[in-house]
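In the design runs reported in the main text, the only information available to the sequence generator was the tokenized backbone. The following block is the verbatim input for one such run; it is reproduced so that readers can re-run the procedure and compare outputs position by position.
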């Protein structure tokens, strides 16, 4: 699916104009690009996380000559798929959310304590 097909599908599903969806997609990609370029990850719960990672410097080789060459360290974008996306791609239903842990009842207000009896 290319960008034009994505815009058409989102416009149909969200009942919006293609122009509005195009602006929204462009704005979203611009924001994600700007934020991860500053080193802050963007997490879309259930979908995935976009982040910037640093690749260490390493020694590679020229595929034509086989000569070794140094490859400098650099920052690259990385996407990690979320559980919901992984389940959808695998054709499974997303895992059911765990039931909320029952809260303990609120503590009763402390009653006026009687002073301890003095020992003689």
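Verbatim output:
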């Amino acid at each position: 699916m290319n960008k034009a097909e994505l815009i058409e599908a989102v416009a149909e599903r969200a009942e919006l104009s293609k122009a509005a969806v195009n602006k929204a997609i462009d704005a979203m990609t611009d924001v994600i690009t700007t934020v991860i370029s500053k080193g802050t990850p963007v997490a879309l719960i259930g979908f995935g996380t976009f982040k910037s990672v640093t690749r260490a410097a390493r020694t590679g080789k020229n595929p034509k000559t086989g000569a070794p060459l140094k490859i400098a360290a650099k920052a690259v974008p990385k996407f990690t798929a979320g559980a919901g996306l992984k389940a959808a791609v695998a054709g499974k239903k997303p895992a059911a959310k765990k039931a909320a842990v029952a809260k303990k009842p609120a503590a009763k207000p402390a009653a006026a304590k009687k002073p301890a009896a003095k020992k003689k």
